[in-house]
Amino acid sequence: MSADQVGTEAETASPAQTSQPVTHTAGDASQKTTTVGGATNASPAAATPALPPPPRGFSPTAPEGFRVTLYAEGFDKPRLMAVAENGDIFLSDPNAGAVYVLPDRNADGVADETLTFAKGLDQPHGLAFHDGYLYVANTGSVVRFPYQSGQTKAQGAPEKLVDLPPRGGHSTRTIEFSPEGQLFVATGSTCNVCEETDERRAAVWVYDADGKNGRPYATGLRNAVGLEWFDGALWATNNGRDMLGDDLPPEGFYQLSDGGFYGWPYCYTVTAGQPQVWDKDFGQADPSVCEDATPAFALTTAHSAPLGMAFYTAQAFPEAYQGQMFAGLHGSWNRSQKSGYKVVSIDPASGEVQDFLTGFVQGNTVKGRPVDAAVAQDGALLVTDDGEGRVWRVAWVGRQQVSDSAAR
């Protein structure tokens, strides 16, 4: 689905309901689920994040032992985050044309204030720190600002490094750095299904850190909004095509490789890890094309729109979450029964997908649209919600503390 076209529905709020995590079989694109138990206990050495008071009114629901609180609010369209070396949270807001800083100096689990690092940008989206700079992906360019630890306001205009095809059907751009310092840029397609004339579209390109020597790295990705290096590889979320009904194609998660082709617009994954299938809109099938397409390693329900993601590498959560991918499912706009509207965890080894943060939708009533996940310096998971202009915080506190808090 088109992640940049999903904010148009008129939707009203309803209170969240309690739920436990749900397991999805990696190769099953349906919504059949099996309920499983809560998280395992964390090790004694795990850090215990601060415990701000629960929010009044709506809050999403996490598995037993986790506490969900409001970290910051009042944004127009909060999207992707980056964590500075001192722990400050940087946040992009494309509608405001701004990048914000959300410091938590007293470590109480709530942003002390919202500071504007830069404004007047052209739909800023992807953020990344590298070698003394904050890189920002606008819709039509990648720019960078000099940055020193603790800095909360840009000094001067940014330096433009890369020209990108602006706007189009998918207007957001995502950036990521490899451990070796290569800059990766994801740009979505102009359309639902088409053969692009600009090879930068529906692809991830790689550049030197100064924006030079750009070339295709991965192609056939209709809209890869989530992009992150982990365990020696580049991983991506992807928004599949629309107009094939409620259940096709399922949304996919991919491990990328240099020169890899991932199917769009000709093929798509139906079963995780298995060969892709031919898209009927392209007439008679050419089996060789789909044979060359790398399938998704994990799937979730069609049109649920996986966007930003983060791998959990801190120690505050239970051991079962170590090395798991957390991804925001923004939610469907064209499905008879809504899908997405939650944060899921994905096991990169098995492809198993589990619900993690839910309650953003009950029936056809929507109370938020998760976008990105980021691991804060204290080990809590931060989640942006561009439907309600908020940033949520999920911290492990143990089952007893959650029970005691509810009793009060």
Automatic annotation (TrEMBL):
Q: Where is the composition biased (Polar residues)?
A: 14-38
Domain (Pyrroloquinoline quinone-dependent pyranose dehydrogenase beta-propeller) ranges? 61-393
The segments labelled Disordered in the record are 1-62
What segments bear the compositional bias annotation Low complexity?
Answer: 39-49
> Which stretches are annotated as coiled coil?
none
Q: Report what the protein is called.
A: Sorbosone dehydrogenase family protein
